[in-house]
Design goal:
By secondary structure, the protein is mainly alpha-helical. It has 8 helices and no strands.
Length: about 180
Amino acid sequence: MGLIGAARGTRDTEFLELVSGHTGRLYRSACLLTSGDTHQAEDLVQEALGRMYVLWRRSAWTGGRHRVEHPGAYAHTVMVRVFLAQQRRRSSGERPTDLLPEPEGREADRTLRLTLLDALGQLSAKDRAVLVLRYWEDRSVEETAEVLRLSSGAVRTRTSRALGRLREQFGDSLAELAVH
């Protein structure tokens, strides 16, 4: 196999460990970004991991100038950027589905989840990405700004406006949905 083949084998093993450790979180975030379209979410995760693999194979991510200290977080960054690029290219006539896989015994949350997914689907792609990164991924304003290539002020403005739109849609009914 030789020295180069062994190095590639090690990198492939490291990449597989990254994938197995982060695919679940990537998929859940992708479901939120796509407003519950599980097929599109799977495609989004696959595309992001495919792009990361190409970079992973090209560079020695364990050292050198291409070092990435948090590959899992970088995978989320790649996925959000892929999502936004797809949204710019996507036909305005396409609508995501409102179905999200539910774990057994969680019927009480189903109405709330579907309502929230529908509300997220009403937001622009960037507003949706801001909310997912800030509140689902629990990223700071600065981290969100870096991922979306926006200023911190723009992230704060988008967050405020997107939350305002959600409040307008829900009014007082969100508290009622959360109780049931």
